[in-house]
Amino acid sequence: MKAVLALADGRIFKGKAFGATGETSGEVVFNTAMSGYQEVLTDPSYKGQMVTMTYTQIGNTGINPEDIESNQLYLSGFIVREYLDCYSNYRATMSLDAYLKENGVVGIQGIDTRALTRHLRDKGAQNGIISTIDFDPESLVKKARAIPSMSGLDLATGVTCSAPYHWTQGLWDLQTGYPEVDKRDLKYKVVAYDFGIKLNILRCLVSAGCDVTVVPATFPAESALAMNPDGIFLSNGPGDPEPMKEVIENIKKFVGKKPIFGICLGHQLLGLALGGRTIKLKFGNHGSNLPVMDIATKKVEITAQNHGFSVDILSLSNVAGLAHENLNDQTVEGMAHKTLPIFSVQHHPEASPGPHDSHYLFNRFVEMMEKHKA
Ligand SMILES: NC(=O)CC[C@H](N)C(=O)O
After folding, report:
1. Which option is the CATH number for 2-145: 2.40.160.20, 3.50.30.20, 3.30.450.150, 1.20.1250.20?
2. Record's PANTHER family (predicted)?
3. Which CATH superfamily includes the segment(s) 156-373?
4. Which residues, other chains included, contact 327 with Cβ-Cβ below 8 Å and sequence gap of 6+?
5. Are the C-beta atoms of residues 337 and 293 closer than 8 Å to each other?
6. Separation of 346 CA from ligand 1 center, angstroms?
7. Ligand 1 binding pocket, CB closer than 6 Å
8. Residue whose CA is closest, atom 5 of ligand 1?
9. 340 is in an annotated binding site
């Protein structure tokens, strides 16, 4: 079946349908990870976006019940060069095509994803539409132009959990799978704010020794402080952090009271809560192969990233300093408070998908809580 991708600036790509059929729209971004499409599909931070993979063959490891970052697919469309229906993986239970169909995600395959990526890199990420029912370029471009811009959209409060819950599962192991960690090994009480939290963040926190209670995005700081946690964690999530005023005000109430660690959207919200500002990048960073330097140790780590916004570190010059830097585009990759036990990173130390170079950051959070306790 035919499918067409139209971008808001008028560029058209003709391909073939895969996954669900129909029409879908969102901000089109490119992801440079060579594997891990299932984690990309289930990452809540992609809500409102359509993802094109730069790796050319997608589908060959199928879908398994374990490599999920949430219980749902949040992205609005999936774009690949060549879809492979014949999958091979000892854990796989179904094909990618069947998975997309089951979850109602519209896909397009057989387009020149290199040309699309170069276009997005040159012109910037922009809205687009995939259709298997309307093939008229003029009508499609008109529809793509009518989609609201990602800037100004609070999407995170729409994907958060509805009530607090406790998490005890640790990191995956080849022999045992996902272990349930003994409560006696969890020494640090952490309240984790869910703005669209990836499950591997929870697993990393637990494996680092944290007793994690996950709370909804607007859970009052007073109630969180009443739990007497050792630290506060702020998660990743979709959309623009700037309109999330209630959440930002809430985060301010933890500053100076508890150690805080933020990842991605959590890092951006923390920047806003500390009085800084955030900006929208031209096309952002999405992938599992992005070099970052830890300024303190000068060590370079290869990281997983997925963001379109960034913290303007100069707007925080009296409060926090640059702690990590992206070596590709020099974007702010992390910050540390000048006097308080507060730090955050733009990239994803939990990886999933991606290398484990940045896992040490969860231990850094634990050390921070240990010091603060003492
Ligand atoms: N992964 C994330 O948390 C993404 C943060 C934010 N939505 C951005 O695009 O920058």
Report:
1. 3.50.30.20
2. CARBAMOYL-PHOSPHATE SYNTHASE SMALL CHAIN, MULTIFUNCTIONAL TRYPTOPHAN BIOSYNTHESIS PROTEIN-RELATED
3. Class I glutamine amidotransferase (GATase) domain (3.40.50.880)
4. 291, 292, 293, 300
5. no
6. 8
7. 45, 236-239, 264-265, 306-309
8. 265
9. no
Interface pTM, i.e. ipTM:
0.98
Q: What is residue 112's three-state secondary structure?
A: coil
Tokens of 27: 């901000």
Query: What is the Cα–Cα distance from 346 to 328, expressed in whole angstroms?
Result: 14
Counting every residue, how long is the chain?
Answer: 374
pTM of the model: 0.97
